[in-house]
Design goal:
Elements lengths: L1 H22 L6 H5 L1 H20 L3 H5 L2 E8 L5 H6 L3 E4 L3 H38 L2 H4 L9 H51 L8 H6 L1 E5 L2 H20 L5 H47 L39 E4 L5 E3 H11 L14 E3 L5
Antiparallel strand pairs: 1-2, 1-3, 4-5, 4-6
Helix pairs in contact: 1-11, 3-6, 6-8
GO molecular function: ubiquitin-protein transferase activity; zinc ion binding
Organism: Castanea mollissima
GO cellular component, one term: peroxisomal membrane
Length: about 375
């Protein structure tokens, strides 16, 4: 169940990496990457719909030999019946359950991915605002030159754009505030259901399956053998529904055969791509770690402290005292040639007059003075 749940994420990673490599030589694939969520949701919609229709299981569940079954709980009053069963009957999926399964498998993950991207943009905007300030603050002094008509038209456009911008900003702020709580609640509920499922306290692996009244069970050998015959019956039934002249039926049947063949090859290719991606990731992971891991060397010993000149000013016992004025340092500044710290006014006056460090007597000038913003 865990592997089936993680398979769509692995498939998306494999497809994204493949299109990223192709986009290096074919720039048109950048459009696919720009609408990555939409393309992947459309692909999963086709795969999940086809899989639920033919096998009563999701795309990933069918690969691991799992099947979805509707759960019907009946209260049995007869003791003999209570002894013979647990009151739970399994049956095939209804049409409503298949549609809702597609919603839980495709639509909800798509909206979650969009909310996650909006949250990341809002977080980046907050970081940029904390570092560089808002865009409005940076462009307040911009001057606009033009006629009255251009100013009026640009004013209307700016008013409409400002309304859209405010609405978008408000939505992004709401998502940025609420999404962490929604994500934490979703992950917490998912973890609770998986833990209860592992301890046999519930037969539902997730909240979505519980809401739909569906349990995922391992398919029997007979069900796996009947899958191919069921698929062929569904396809033959669809061919019988074709209407029109004989030549049109032939064309439509050929198109259906091509579509089914493309679906089969796409499913097989996606499976091979996922397993190949996982194998290559495992194969190169240890080698990449060995190559990319930096060699850890012991830290070098600290340099020896500069020697105090015999004719220089002696150091006070308290490090927070300026050696020149013998008071607590104000605006601490360091002389880079020696590393000693003084008051800025004291050291600037001394270096400007004597052109040296007052303690080591090493040559220095005003360019060697640096302000310390965190005095330790």
């Amino acid at each position: 169940m865990s592997a089936a749940q993680q398979l769509p994420a692995s498939l998306r990673a494999a497809l994204t990496y493949s299109f990223g490599v192709l986009a290096l030589r074919r720039p048109m694939f950048h459009r696919v990457l720009d609408y990555e969520d939409e393309f992947f949701a459309f692909l999963m919609l086709i795969l999940e719909t086809h899989s639920l229709r033919t096998t009563d299981a999701s795309f990933s569940e069918s690969l691991y030999g799992l099947r979805r079954r509707a759960v019907k709980i009946k209260v049995k009053k007869d003791d003999a019946q209570l002894m013979s069963g647990d009151g739970i009957n399994h049956s095939g999926l209804e049409k409503r359950q298949k549609v809702l399964s597609v919603v839980f498998l495709v639509v909800l993950p798509y909206f979650k991915s969009k909310l996650h991207s909006i949250y990341n943009k809002e977080r980046e905007a907050r970081l940029q605002a904390s570092l560089w300030g808002h865009d409005d603050e940076r462009f307040d002094d911009t001057e606009y030159i033009g006629g009255e008509d251009s100013l009026a038209s640009s004013g209307n456009l700016e008013a409409e754009a400002s309304i859209r911008t405010r609405l978008t900003t408000r939505i992004q702020k709401i998502v940025g505030t609420c999404y962490p709580w929604i994500h934490a609640s979703s992950e917490g509920v998912s973890f609770a259901y998986q833990l209860l499922y592992l301890l046999d306290a519930t037969g539902f692996y997730s909240l979505g399956l519980h809401a739909l009244g569906i349990q995922v069970c391992r398919a029997t050998g007979q069900e796996l053998m009947d899958t191919s015959s069921r698929i062929s019956k569904i396809r033959s039934r669809e061919r019988e529904r074709l209407r029109g002249p004989p030549w049109l039926k032939v064309v439509q049947g050929a198109l259906l055969s091509c579509m089914y063949t493309a679906l089969d090859y796409a499913q097989t290719g996606l499976i091979a791509a996922v397993f190949f991606f996982k194998m290559m990731e495992w194969w190169y992971q240890s080698a990449e770690e060995r190559i990319s891991a930096p060699t850890v060397y012991p830290p070098p010993p600290p340099p020896p402290p500069p020697k105090v000149a015999e004719e220089g000013i002696p150091l006070p016992p308290d490090r927070t005292i300026c050696p020149l004025c013998s008071q607590k340092r104000a605006n601490p500044s360091v002389v880079t040639v020696s590393g000693f710290v003084f008051c800025y006014a004291c050291i600037f006056k001394y270096v400007s007059q004597y052109k040296r460090c007052p303690i080591t007597l090493m040559p220095a000038n005003g360019d060697h003075i640096r302000r310390l913003f965190h005095d330790v």
